[in-house]
Design goal:
With 197 residues, this protein is an all-alpha fold. It has helices spanning 3-32, 36-67, 77-89, 98-111, 121-132, 137-140, 142-162, 182-193. It is 70% helix and 0% strand.
Length: 197
């Protein structure tokens, strides 16, 4: 399977998982849960899930960062989708209590497949908390990112089906994304990625 198609499928699944966890938490907070214990359990589950998704995004960003010579390419669609996932999933850190942070870190370690460890988790968590406090609205508005990724994936699938016997590079000229404070975001995430050796 084409690497781009695999990535598009993973990205769409990550967005769906994030939205599902957030929707369940919101439902419980608005009265769907019958007790404060259930709400606390859902908050822990949400923190863990957000941490796990953030860890996976960090791992993918770090892999690409290394491949690009320790440069965060803000024109790379894969990086943009991972940044959108990261930005969305760290929002809970803005006002998180220690229980939330503990669960988030557990998920972060698992999701990053141990890129984040117990030894570096405090520094990573601090960097992610600072990242969450930035203006990430252009990244969090993932609808356009998701739509463009889905469009590119559909184009890729159509192209593969049309030209099944030949290999060709698939480019979608409409995948350029404007991020309002891209330099600030790139600097913050690059500093975070430099924590990993």
């Amino acid at each position: 399977m084409n690497k781009f198609i695999k990535f598009a499928v993973v990205a769409v699944m990550a967005v769906f998982a994030t939205q599902t966890a957030q929707a369940q938490l919101l439902k419980n907070l608005l009265g769907g849960a019958s007790s404060s214990t259930e709400v606390a359990a859902e908050t822990k589950s949400s923190a863990y899930s957000s941490g796990q998704t953030s860890g996976a995004a960090l791992k993918a960003l770090y892999s690409q960062y290394k491949a690009d010579g320790k440069n965060l390419n803000m024109n790379n669609m894969q990086n943009m989708l991972n940044l959108a996932s990261l930005a969305t999933n760290v929002q809970g850190l803005k006002t998180a209590d220690s229980d939330y942070k503990k669960e988030f870190v557990k998920g972060l370690i698992l999701g990053s497949t141990n890129l984040v460890t117990n030894n570096n988790s405090t520094s990573v968590l601090s960097s992610l908390t600072n990242f969450a406090k930035m203006d990430l609205s252009s990244l969090i508005n993932a609808e356009s990112l998701t739509e463009k990724a889905e469009s590119a994936a559909k184009n890729a699938i159509t192209s593969i089906l049309t030209t099944a016997s030949e290999t060709k590079k698939i480019e979608d000229k409409n995948t350029n994304i404007k991020i309002e404070n891209a330099a600030e975001i790139a600097s913050s995430v690059s500093s975070l990625l430099n924590l990993f050796k």
